[in-house]
Every structure is written in structure tokens, then in C-alpha cells.
Amino acid sequence: MLDQSISSVDTRCVRPMGLTPSGTSARILVHDDPYSDRIRCDHPEITDGAALGHALIETADKCTRGRVVVLASADIEPGLSDVGFSREGLLPGFYGGKKACTVMGYYRDDDRGQLARPERVHQVRELVEQKGARRVAPEVRTRRAKPIDAPRVAKLIGETFAEYPTPSEDPRYVARAIASGTPFRVVERNGDVVACASADLVREAKTAELTDCATKPAYRGQGLMQSLLADLMDDLRELKYPTAFTLARATIPGVNLAFSHLGFGLRGCMPRSCRIGRGLEDMNIWSRSLKPQRAFWNKITKAARKRRGVSPLTSRMRM
Prior knowledge:
This protein is of the alpha+beta class. It has helices at about 50-65, 75-80, 120-130, 150-160, 170-180, 225-240, 255-260, 295-305; strands spanning about 1-5, 15-20, 30-35, 40, 65-75, 85-95, 100-105, 145, 185-190, 190-200, 205-215, 245-250, 265-275, 280-290.
């Protein structure tokens, strides 16, 4: 049963809806995303994967969406597979550092199960495999952003991405996120924000998505993003988050190399997943544990702490 009465529509027209799969008492929140032509379901509390899959397919049919994406406990993957879902990735230790998260896709439109730019995706993957060895980031100072920084952060994101699946080019949206405890970090040059990134907290799972990665063209290739990401991971460690993940455009070498250099593992790829820029993008899935690993990460942490211009802000979150 589908309940379309929940909440309102945001600036990207993502519509939250309540869903009760047949034969269960579970109440599931799903999102109708016409911007990216998909139905998305994140971390449903349900044990019957087949019932959930049938309900999501029915919802996609009613909303005429091209694909469905589910991020859920790996325990329900068999049931989802039985009704036609395919695994796109698997993130170990996603839930509290213990249980794995499976990324599953269902394709009403057959082409949504195929890579949009397969040759480019494979080229980037080969490049990562060749140059993906871990290395210490250069000495680049980053700092935690404050709500007053929101206009400059939003401007940079808006200049970097012609289209984006969240309204991160809106200063009000960015200011609210920072004020709510979402870690944003920036690199400044001569008073100008030239690079930024954030850690979107998934509080119920105690993990975070590293996102909003943007660098002005003149400053690319200088290790700024790697430094931002390293310091954001340090912020997450202070919040006692055991893992982090990201969804990176699979055709862009720089961002994939940055995550590889920081010890993230490539966990899969989501074909034609979401709209960024000029159409539907293939998205690589990366994740890693945030527990210190060997002397290398002691060196990384020491370098990160030396770079940081401002201590992490105390987060006023409701856990």
C-alpha cells in the first residue's frame, strides 16, 4: 500500500512516501526522485526482502520511474534477488562497523542497468589500479566551515556542477546543514574558498557519505581534495564513526584517485544512477574503515592534525 501524503517536495522534487509491503507490518520510507528518474529506498527496517522488492517495483510502475535503488542490510539481499534486483555493490561494516550494506538495483528501463559510458568507466578503473597506491597527502591546511561560509561554499559547488542531485548550490541549504552538525571543510586562498567537501552523516548507521567535493579548476591536481577528505575522516573519528563511504562519478579520474589514495576500497558501480551535469551518471561505490591501520595511518593522522587550522566544532547532534 502506498501513502503519498507524507511531507513536502524539496527543490530537487524528491517526494518522500510511506510504504507498507504486502504481508508485513513494516512501515518503509521511500523517495520518488523524478530528477534522476528513480525510486530510492535507504536502510529499510524489514526482514522480508522479497516483499520489499515487490512493493518497490509496484511503486516504480505507478510513478513510471526507470530504476529502483536500495541500500539495505545484506541480510535481505537474497529476497531482493529473487524478485529481479541485482547487486551493484557491497559495503562491509556499513552499519555501526559490523553489518554489511548491500546496494541493489532494479531496472524498469533496460538501459538503466547498463553503464552510460563503459569505455570511460573502464579507463578510470584501470588508472586507479595503476596509480591507486596509498600515499600521504601534501601539507594543505583545511578548516571546518561555519554557517557564515555557506554562500562561498554554495557558490563553488554551483560553479563546479551545472546540475546536482541535492540543492548544495543554495546557501540556505548549506548553512542549515552546517548548523545541524554536518561537517564541511574548506581550503582558502587569499580569502577565497577554492575547495570544499562534506561528510553527510547517516546517524542511524554511524557512517557518513563524503560528498560535495569541489575544487576550482586552477587549484586542481595539488592535493587539496585529498587533504579535505583526510581531515573529514579525522572529524568522523572524533564522532566515533567507524566507517565512511562515497559515491563518485565513475568517469572522473581525480576524485576516484583521491579516495583510492586514502585507502578506500572500490565496492561496485551503480549504472546510470543519478543526474549530475549532462545526464545520468555511472557512480562508483567506495568505502573504508576509519580505524587506524598500521604506521601509515599514524603518519596520515599526524599530517592531517598539523594541517588543520581550526579544531573540529563540537557537534550538537541528536543521536
